[in-house]
Design a protein that fits this description.
This protein is of the alpha/beta class. It folds into 2 domains: 88 residues, no CATH class; 134 residues, abc type-2 transporter like fold, CATH 3.40.1710. It is built from 10 helices and 4 strands; from the N terminus they run H-H-H-E-H-E-H-E-H-E-H-H-H-H. It has a 4-stranded mixed β-sheet, sandwiched between helices. The longest helix is centred in the middle third of the chain and has 29 residues. The protein is elongated, with a radius of gyration of 33 Å.
Length: 248
């Protein structure tokens, strides 16, 4: 009887799930390494990670031009592209292969190819294909290059149409109004600033939070497994569940 009472007294008391969660909280807060990792780490990363994305909207992206027409209209198109806030024309080369080298060596983010007969075909009312491309590794940079080139191409097309209308004797005011009859009002639905911070940082913060929580659980488990404590008073499944709920 005395032996039985002694064995009962030495049996570890089982913890309820809520008591286990509260005990886990106390263990997390009392461990300086875990507290610094979870709370200090999140604050540190929240300042460190957004720094590369302070310049939210990509502007003045370097563009290399392949002008195969060498006409007054192609030069006007290049000036329109360079005047765009999103593009900076850094030079012209004689072939697409040379232009690709600029992109491969990161000297330029995009290229524009003006085909031969560009001015002649436009004045004759024929369709002209402008080729442009860029480094799509950075989505916002690529979209900035494409958007700037589309805008420049539309402006050049309107100028040619205006010249044709005036040559046919149409009233200048009416010709200008007919060209501007369609307006594009682009309103971003989600990333309203079109910047990197709302596009990249929310996903990074989720990654940071999961990373710090995983490190915290690793530190807590590594510091406990060689010693005796409350974690031995519950089953492994209950301990894992309680720890997950505490960290969540």
């Amino acid at each position: 009887m005395n032996l039985s009472n002694s064995e009962h007294a030495n049996t570890p008391r089982q913890l309820s799930l809520w008591r286990l969660i509260l005990t886990e909280f106390k263990a997390i807060i009392s461990d300086k390494a875990i507290a610094v990792t979870l709370f200090g780490g999140v604050l540190f990363y929240s300042v460190l990670y957004p720094l590369p994305y302070l310049n939210q909207v990509p502007t003045e992206q370097q563009l290399i031009v392949v002008d195969l027409d060498h006409s007054s209209l192609s030069r006007q198109l290049i000036r329109h592209a360079d005047a765009s806030a999103k593009i900076q024309v850094i030079g012209q080369v004689g072939s697409i292969t040379e232009a690709k080298r600029f992109i491969e060596t990161r000297k330029a983010h995009g290229l524009l190819v003006i085909p031969e007969g560009f001015r002649r075909d436009l004045l004759l009312g024929k369709g002209v294909t402008l080729s442009y491309g860029g480094d799509a590794s950075y989505f916002l940079i690529y979209s900035a290059v494409v958007e700037g080139l589309v805008s420049a191409g539309m402006d050049a097309g309107k100028q040619v149409q205006l010249i044709g209308m005036l040559a046919q004797g149409q009233n200048p005011k009416q010709a200008q109004e007919s060209l501007n009859s369609l307006y594009l009002n682009s309103v971003p639905a989600f990333n309203q600033s079109l910047g990197y911070t709302p596009y990249v940082v929310p996903g990074l913060f989720l990654l940071i939070l999961h990373q710090t929580l995983l490190i915290g659980t690793g530190i807590l488990g590594a510091g406990q497994w060689r010693h005796k404590g409350y974690w031995q008073q519950v089953s492994p499944v209950q301990l894992v569940c309680g720890r997950i709920l505490a960290f969540m």
